[in-house]
Design brief:
Radius of gyration: 28 Å
Helix content: 55-70%
Number of strands: 5
Distance between the termini: 103 Å
Number of helices: 6
Largest sheet: 5 strands, antiparallel
Order of helices and strands: HEHEHEHEEHH
Shape: elongated
Mean pLDDT: 85
Length: about 180
């Protein structure tokens, strides 16, 4: 491969990796074209992209953008799943794809998050995290709980007064009749 093409490929990889939250490394040896298309679709729907490139060029690009450069997992035919945001959702997408019996050819090797190299277990733990929307909903629920309780406590005396007044009105109405 001529050197100018390699420089262009490294430059393209650097552009893709610059804003990346995480990069997951998967071996794709043995996947059919339909399976490869399916994993690309799932990752794209989750907000990421799959890039197949020479390992040496990826290592150079990773080093130039300041990410960790793992020598052990960047060996063999690899697909690099780039997560620009919401990396748990993308990790979940590749985990679910690889866990299906017919997709056993897809092997998740590990990943990178900034200057940290993630093991397979750490990638799986990341995949098991709730999505960003679920985490925000849990946070709102946690914050709203005490406020809801305060509103209930503060409305208690006025509710009691209204109940007393309505009982008095009913009693006076029954006494008048």
């Amino acid at each position: 491969m001529p050197a100018s093409i390699k420089f262009e490929m490294v430059s393209e990889l650097k552009d893709k990796l610059k804003g990346a939250e995480a990069v997951f490394v998967c071996e794709y040896r043995g996947l059919t074209v339909a399976q490869a298309t399916e994993v690309r679709r799932l990752v794209r729907e989750a907000g990421g992209e799959v890039k197949v490139a020479k390992n040496t060029l990826v290592r150079i690009a990773l080093g130039e953008v300041g990410m960790a450069v793992p020598e052990d997992i960047t060996v063999g035919p690899n697909a690099y799943v780039i997560a620009h945001e919401n990396s748990p959702a993308i990790a979940k997408a590749i985990k679910e794809f690889a866990s299906k019996k017919e997709n056993k050819a897809m092997v998740i090797k590990g990943g990178l998050m900034g200057s940290n190299v993630l093991s397979l277990d750490q990638v799986m733990a990341l995949a098991d995290l709730p999505s960003r929307d679920q985490m925000l909903a849990q946070l709102v629920g946690t914050l709203a709980g005490p406020i809801r309780g305060l509103v209930t406590v503060l409305s208690g005396p006025s509710r009691g007064l209204v109940t007393c007044l309505s009982q008095l009105a009913e009693k006076k109405g029954s006494d008048a009749a």
